[in-house]
Specification:
It contains 5 helices and 5 strands, in the order H-H-E-H-E-E-E-E-H-H. It has helices spanning 4-15, 21-35, 62-75, 129-142, 146-157; strands at residues 46-51, 81-86, 101-103, 112-117, 120-124.
Amino acid sequence: MQTRDYAEELVRSADEATASEDQIKRWIDLRMDRQQILLSDDAPRLSVILDESILYRSIGSGEVWHGQLRHLVEQGQRDNIDIRILPFTAAPHRGHKGGFMLFEMPDPYPKVAHLDTHAGQLFIEEPAVLRLTEVWKDIDMKAVDHEESTRLILRHLEEPK
């Protein structure tokens, strides 16, 4: 769900001091390649809930940030992608400890969660993944619908770069 420029800003800000230029480029390429699955004919369904605070935390130049916001709006138009915003007014909510990805796959595969941390990537399986499923249910109920989320993102695109 990231543009190349936005992904580069994120990777460099987190890892530039400890990673080689080649490694940084590989990580950015990996992020871009991973997104291709969302464009395939048998693309999986992706539901994303973003905290409203991300709309106020620009990454990179105004051009990079606006490009990322436009990309979110464009991707949200796809049938298999749902992007919603968890508004400030949704507090308190169970997702305050940080972001995660929840993968629901067909049987016989178990539900798995992924957390990206400063110490590395973590994969969580049952039974602990059940707690994250409950967190998802809570923020899913409190996030605004797709149309209102798109309006919120577009409102930030109207601001000067």
